[in-house]
């Protein structure tokens, strides 16, 4: 608890370009949480280097992501928006927690298996211990809640296991985090393969709408979206491509699937795709305009980076020092 508020932690990797799915499924819904929670939103650039990165590109994307957080409506005065790499406590606590994590637990992590298969030429120790760094991210700030999707639930479970194990030995050091159950963000699927989520790492450029895509690119990708031969606009699992387009339309305009079905009754997929494209453009244009404004104000962004790193370090140091004392590290002479 901070100032009688529960603590919420979340973050996104500074790799690739954020998609419409990232925005509608997560980022858009973060904005309303600062009234209820003390929120820490990290640009998790330390996680990013488990896959080889071009240094200049990583720095550029990290700043772009932090700017997008703010452009999306996250107030940097109410929320702690910071670079993970600017808080060395993440790495220090991760090492300690590595010593309280079992190989068998890490071997069961499905994301390691998936990423190892994709990057067979670089199966490094960081990729294997990725969940421990994620646990450190969460436990450093004594987070009460963590917004997670189904694909991240396993990581939250191992975080809880590590924290409970440590607490069982040394007392109540860590808050045991719970999954954040709130307003469910829209689940946006690939425009080319609606059986899988829209992804910023998809090799098919037409599969994902990126937040900084220009209006023509957005309209073109929507027109090329996979549908089916049924020819009827229905929100049905039997029509996954059409269902995905309806989900996007609903999330952008605040409509229900039933309203959309009525709106497009007797109309074709071409009209639906055109309407979805315009709806997405209407949502992303203001965001893109705000990004452009923020990018021109270098000193403002630099100030946020500095001030929020200091705030994050303050709370992270409190937890790390407590952990270090518990496990027997010598006190620092000040």
Would you kindly provide a written description of the structure presented here, covering whatever features stand out?
- The structure is a single chain.
- The protein is mainly alpha-helical.
- The protein is built from 14 helices and five strands.
- The chain has helices at 20-30, 45-48, 55-71, 89-98, 103-107, 110-118, 125-128, 130-140, 153-170, 215-223, 240-253, 257-263, 269-296, 298-327; strands spanning 6-12, 37-43, 80-83, 145-146, 178-179.
- The strands form two sheets. It has a three-stranded parallel beta sheet. A two-stranded parallel sheet has the order 4-5.
- β4 (145-146), α9 (153-170) and β5 (178-179) form a beta-alpha-beta unit.
Compute the number of helices.
14
Terminal residue distance:
28 Å
CATH topology of the largest domain: Rossmann fold
Tally of separate domains: 2
User: Shape, please?
Assistant: globular
Write a short abstract of this structure:
With about 325 residues, the chain is mainly alpha-helical. It folds into two domains: about 5-180 and about 300-325, HUPs (Rossmann fold), CATH 3.40.50.620; about 215-295, Tyrosyl-Transfer RNA Synthetase, CATH 1.10.240.10.
Structural key phrases:
2 domains; two-stranded parallel sheet; Tyrosyl-Transfer RNA Synthetase; 334 residues; 7% strand; globular; mainly alpha; Rossmann fold
